[in-house]
Amino acid sequence: MKLYNYFRSSASFRVRIALALKGLSYDYLPVHLVKGEHKQESYAAIAPSRLVPTLELDDGRHLSQSMAIIEYLDEMHPQPRLLPLDPFRRAQVRSLAQLIACEIHPLNNLRVLKYLVRDLKVDEEAKNAWYRHWVRDGLEAFERELQQLPASTYCYGDQPTLADCCLVPQIFNGQRFNVDFGGLTRTMAAFDACMKHPAFQQAQPSACPDNEA
Amino acid sequence: MKLYNYFRSSASFRVRIALALKGLSYDYLPVHLVKGEHKQESYAAIAPSRLVPTLELDDGRHLSQSMAIIEYLDEMHPQPRLLPLDPFRRAQVRSLAQLIACEIHPLNNLRVLKYLVRDLKVDEEAKNAWYRHWVRDGLEAFERELQQLPASTYCYGDQPTLADCCLVPQIFNGQRFNVDFGGLTRTMAAFDACMKHPAFQQAQPSACPDNEA
């Protein structure tokens, strides 16, 4: 398999975590978002949506959208499982993942921040306030959801799930913008547990070949 | 089952479509977003994230996040299927749904538009331009994805899927803000096919008990 991705892209990071958890090897193909490589014809031919990540299967077919890719990997390579077998529990994990992927992250990705600055003439301080507002607001909702669940090491139970694949990149992003994580007890405990796991360390931006830090 | 929802909420509309496609009956419990009913204690006790929709099962358990709810319904009530059985095809449908639910809709929901106006002091014209920009930009990506697929009645194949459950509410929203749908040939053909289907008609905002139109 090949993964078209960018070290700092949260959605790419999610898929790298899933691949690492499952011990699947892949070719890392960097797509430099800040240089606009995702909009070039060579990438657009592979990914009509021009977003990262894209997973290329060994037979040459492509898949996009990080959660769809991760569920595909989980169905094809079920060990270790990233979604519980029970339908209700599986829905709860998907719900946690979507709370991040549909409610927090979309408001803070690169193209949105660019629009705020370029089209709405928002200054640096207001842009950062926007960023922090949505991350904090969303993570508070996430924390309230976790508080309803039985005690666990990770977001949902004692093994990493799709929810952890989404949470960790969101925390990394929030750290870059100095988001206040105070009081997010369960959330940050899950994050800390993840960061002790070798798969999460292996997938993190600083471990990527295109890392610029 | 009971569905806590709001007639104009896109995420609620998605779940109503899925319930209607499967012929499942439910109690319609309106939560008035504009009046802030989702933030009241009575609702927060049911939905810690304070978002709509929430599905209450007959045993009293709750599920949130529209795509997670729809996948749960599809697993528990598999006829008619809203996701193909083949893992790759299923991933393609999820990817289309997520292209709307993770890339377009989050930028245009009520709380985001409120933040633009209240915190960023964006005027009505710039707010509408923001809205139209993200819907148009996202639907162009969606259209490019559809153009890669074999000809079909709906978004993916000749039966409605999760992708159609997400597309139709997004088009409804876009219509309210006069988005230009020109050139979105496959997308709008799928929308038109959906709107000839009784389940989509039955689920639309104007057919809801809390409709204010």
From TrEMBL, chains A, B:
Keyword DNA damage annotated: no
GO biological process terms held by the UniProt record: glutathione metabolic process; L-phenylalanine catabolic process
Class of enzymatic activity (EC top level): isomerase
GO cellular component, as recorded: cytoplasm
Keywords: Isomerase
Domain GST N-terminal residues, every copy: 1-81
Listed PROSITE patterns: GST_CTER, GST_NTER
Enzyme Commission code(s) on record: 5.2.1.2
Coiled-coil annotated spans: none
Database matches in Pfam families: GST_C (PF00043), GST_N_2 (PF13409)
Family matches, as CDD domains: GST_C_Zeta, GST_N_Zeta
A GO MF label: maleylacetoacetate isomerase activity
GST C-terminal domain span: 86-213
Domain of life assignment: Bacteria
PANTHER family: MALEYLACETOACETATE ISOMERASE (PTHR42673:SF4)
Family: Belongs to the GST superfamily. Zeta family.
Listed name of the protein: Maleylacetoacetate isomerase
Organism of derivation: Ramlibacter agri
Gene, per the UniProt record: maiA
